[in-house]
Amino acid sequence: MGPPGCSQLLDGQRADLVSSLLPLSARGGNGQLTLVGLIGAAPRARCGADPDFSTWLAKRTPAGRWGAVEELVGAAVFLSSDAASFVNGHILYVDGGITASL
Question: Is the pLDDT at 94 greater than 60, yes or no?
């Protein structure tokens, strides 16, 4: 989907990533995964150069726009805080809702 360099993670790859994080909890850590959508200037320069893709993204993403790097801060703060001490093997999507809409 999308121009080269703008691929999505396949379900099997997501499952492999999550299962690789779970052993951390047995050693007192916790593992989460944050998957981001098309956020920031670099993806926009690479993928947004195609006006058809940008139009598709705006129509398909419930947020209706590209994401901003600043929108990742809350997820990072939460996952690195004590509030997430019992969150293990979770994928937090910061993608404007596009994953849920696909």
Answer: yes
Q: CA 55 to CA 30: how far, in whole Å?
A: 38
- pTM for this predicted structure: 0.66
Residue 73 to residue 65: CA distance in whole angstroms: 18
Listed by start position, the domains of the chain span 31-101
- DSSP bridge partners of 90: 32
- Closest alpha carbon to 95 in 64, 50, 56: 64
Q: Measured in Å, how far apart are the chain's first and last C-alpha atoms? A: 11
C-alpha dist (Å) from residue 90 to 2, 31, 58, 59, 86:
26, 7, 27, 28, 10
Instruction: Average the pLDDT over 44-65 and give the result.
Output: 82
pLDDT greater than 80 at residue 72: yes
- Is the Cβ–Cβ distance between 61 and 8 less than 8 Å? no
Distance CA 54, CA 62 (A): 14
